[in-house]
Amino acid sequence: MGDPRSEAGALAPGMGRGVEAQDLRHTEGECPTMARLVGVDLPRDKRLEIALTYIFGIGRTRAQEILEATGISPDLRVHQLTDAELVPMRDFIEANYKIEGDLRREVQADIRRKIEIGCYQGIRHRKGLPVHGQRTQTNARTRKGKKKTVAGKKKPGKK
């Protein structure tokens, strides 16, 4: 008996079987599956410098700093990484940066604090308006939501 999904025809054409065969052809020491760093799956086929930006709190500049500090080539692909290269990267990130859940909690706490103290930015957050000085007479639709039409005053007609 095989995979029940494949028997039922749930797999799309070109999906399912090619991935396993491709994963079996890795050389010794390489990571055959997605590399996991600080709870985030890094995409296998991306360059390491780009793949690190999938972690919340790490952008291009920080990714470059991490790779420079750990001595890993930014041109390496994620699937070419060894466990020996992942460990120092993980240690460096955890020691030097606030990322993922901790960073999200801190940002939310900052917003809550501003709302509680009633500062200008807190009021803008509470009203759901742009916080950083953007214009609102036109635009700001993402923040304000869909337009609410207001009935205009009727002009008196000619007699």
From TrEMBL:
InterPro entries: Rbsml_uS13_C (IPR027437), Ribosomal_uS13 (IPR001892), Ribosomal_uS13-like_H2TH (IPR010979), Ribosomal_uS13_bac-type (IPR019980), Ribosomal_uS13_CS (IPR018269). GO terms for molecular function: rRNA binding; structural constituent of ribosome; tRNA binding. Pfam families: Ribosomal_S13. One of its GO terms (biological process) is translation. SUPFAM superfamilies: S13-like H2TH domain. GO terms for cellular component: cytosol; small ribosomal subunit. Residues 128-159 are annotated as: Disordered. Residues 141-159 have a biased composition (Basic residues). It comes from the Bacteria. Keywords: Ribonucleoprotein, Ribosomal protein, RNA-binding, rRNA-binding, tRNA-binding. Located at the top of the head of the 30S subunit, it contacts several helices of the 16S rRNA. In the 70S ribosome it contacts the 23S rRNA (bridge B1a) and protein L5 of the 50S subunit (bridge B1b), connecting the 2 subunits; these bridges are implicated in subunit movement. Contacts the tRNAs in the A and P-sites. Part of the 30S ribosomal subunit. Forms a loose heterodimer with protein S19. Forms two bridges to the 50S subunit in the 70S ribosome. Belongs to the universal ribosomal protein uS13 family. PANTHER family: 30S RIBOSOMAL PROTEIN S13/40S RIBOSOMAL PROTEIN S18 (PTHR10871), SMALL RIBOSOMAL SUBUNIT PROTEIN US13M (PTHR10871:SF1). This is Small ribosomal subunit protein uS13. The gene is rpsM.
